Amino acid sequence: MSDMIFLNLPVTDLAASIRFYEAIGCVKNEQFSDHQAASMVWSETIMFHLLLRDYFATFTKKPISDPRETCAMLIALSRDSRADVDAIVAAAAAAGGKADVREPQDMGFMYIRTFEDPDGHVFEPAWMDMDAASAAMPQETGGSA
Question: What's the rounded Cα separation, in Å, for the pair 39 and 128?
C-alpha cells in the first residue's frame, strides 16, 4: 500500500460538505461513506474524510474546535498553474466556501490563495515554478562540523 494521507474533518452539514468537496474536485467514495461520514477522494493518495461533529467526537477525548473560531491547521494543495489556483478558489466560493480569507501571495515563482470550506477549514491552493524557486532561494553553503 502506498503512503496515503487521510484528513478527518468535523463538519456540521454532511450533504453541503459533500457538494462543496465535489465542487473543488473530489469524488465521493461510496464504499467508505454513510449517513454520518463521507470519504472524498482528492487523489490516489489523499482523502478527505468528512465526519459529522458528533461522530468525529467519538475518535478523540479532546474538545472539537470550531474552525470558524480557531485554526488548528492550514491544508495546502498543489496546483499545476496559476489558473488552476484561481479556478479552485472560484469553485470553492461558488459552492458555499469563502474565498481569499487572506490576501493572495504572488512571489513570481510561487502563487498562493486561500479559501475556507463551509465549516471554516482553511485551504491554501498553491502553484510553484520549481526551477524559478530554486534560483530565487539562497543556496546552502557547505561547511564542516
Answer: 28
Q: At what angle do helices 14-23 and 82-94 cross, to 10 degrees?
A: 150
Q: Where are the extended beta strands (E) located within 1-73?
A: 5-11, 27-29, 37-41, 46-52
Q: From residue 89, how far is each of 102, 114, 116, 117 by CA, in Å?
A: 12, 7, 9, 10
Question: What sign does the CA torsion over 94, 97, 102, 108 have?
Answer: negative
pLDDT the model gives residue 72: 87
The mean predicted confidence, pLDDT, of the chain is 93
Q: What percent of the chain has pLDDT over 90?
A: 86
What pTM does this model have? 0.87
Q: Residue 129: enclosing H or E segment and its boundaries?
A: none
CA distances from 49 to 23, 65, 92, 98, 135 (A): 16, 17, 17, 20, 38
> With bands split at pLDDT 50, 70 and 90, how would you rate the model's confidence at 141?
low
User: Which domains does the chain possess?
Assistant: 1-62 (3.10.180.10), 69-136 (3.10.180.10)
